[in-house]
Amino acid sequence: MDHRTAPSRAVVIGSGIGGLTAAVALHQRGWHVTVLERAASLRPVGAGIGLAPNALRALDVIGLGDEVRALAVWQGDGGMRTPGGRWLARTNARAAADRFGGPLVAVHRATLIDTLAARLPDAAIRTATPASLADPGAPDGSRAVVTTPGGALEADLVIGADGIDSAVRGALFPAHPEPAYTGLTAWRLLIPAPERPFHPHETWGRGALWGTQPLKDGRVYAYAAAVVPAGGTAPEGEKAELLRRFGTWHHPVPAILAAADDGRVLRHDIRHLATPLPAFHRGRTALLGDAAHAMAPTLGQGGNQAIEDGIVLAHHLAPGSDIAAGLAAYSADRVPRTTAIVRKAARIVRLQTWTSPPAVAVRHTLMALAGLAGPGIALRTFDGIADWHPPQRTPAPRTYDRRDRQALR
To answer: From 189's CA, which of 49, 107, 141, 288 has a CA 20 to 30 Å away?
Structure first.
């Protein structure tokens, strides 16, 4: 088999944001794409997601950026607060857009999933289809093999987009350390908008935080996190647990909790892939999103980086290109960038898990002093992240050198 023959078939294991982005990008480049999802539907696990300018520019590549930007609702001020309501630092939507070349858009995950899925042929997505990687394939030889209850599928390319507990990652790198608990457990919920208006905010307390964001459809996405032992559940229900921890915090936190449906409060331990993978591919199989670089949500970049992954992977796999070179270039581009973001997110976790009153007082004082300098200081956290641009698509296949890889970092 000539390994420079145009590849034809890609199989994506997992229908999350990253997997669907990759599927759409590859489909638009001429690949025959099949997405395998073990769940019975595409209903995503989660509530909301914030899409930063870097992800929106990535979505521009597949023609979805402006459609998602139209969902932006936050036009004013927001910032960081204390549980009593004092503003520690202000941020401004216009300042963020000016600095990074676009808005931050908060959307329901289901809205984004539906938007991506609509760009694929009807038969491309197979739900209720668990899949496992039987053979990662060889770039210059055998095709990869994926097994399903309906039989085996051979593919020129397999993409493991199966989340933080990725079985594909385990098959490619069986000796690699598993994701580690960060020390924080998170809760997420959606409610109708409260009667009293509020500014978007994130509030930091002693070993706990709360965030509130409005969505375009009028609902509110809220999230919380606290230092608790891993693997726990609340005996009286998660809403009761949130009321105990956050019920006396500033508006709109009590109103949001009062409107919350206990059965719809999501709880999960926050884990991350603290030890980076040596590469995001082996053979004809690539990893993306949480399967490749699970990170704490403290920078809001988990889904954003998965979108970047999908676009960059498709960029390096133009029809007729060398799969081995393309996958190597993908790893070379993505491993350094995502490793740096995983580590930066972990550093912020360490600040959020402080429980000592003196340490928290010092943290708040430093945040307040930084806030006095204006929103630009807070936005610097996202320099080198939110200002990323996707690689430019070339009119014909070519090789990728060191300069191309540096351009993506």
So the answer is: 288
Written as one letter, the residue type at 212 is T
Identify which of 56, 49, 53, 67 has the alpha carbon closest to the alpha carbon of residue 115: 67
Contacts for 181 with CB less than 8 Å, ≥ 6 apart: 230, 269, 270, 271
Using DSSP, state whether 27 is helix, strand or coil. Answer: helix
Please write the tens of the pLDDT for every residue from 214-269. 888 888 999 999 999 999 999 999 999 999 999 999 999 999 999 999 889 999 99
DSSP state of 313: H
Q: Which fold has domain 9-77+101-177+274-352+377-407?
A: FAD/NAD(P)-binding domain (3.50.50)
pTM of the full structure: 0.91
Separation CA 249–CA 116 (nearest Å): 37
State the CB neighbour count (10 A cutoff) for residue 282. 22
Residue 36, beta-bridge partner list: 13, 126
Question: Which amino acid is residue 219, in one-letter code?
Answer: R
Helix/strand/coil for 164: coil
CB atoms within 10 A of CB 25: 26
Domain ranges of the chain: 9-77+101-177+274-352+377-407
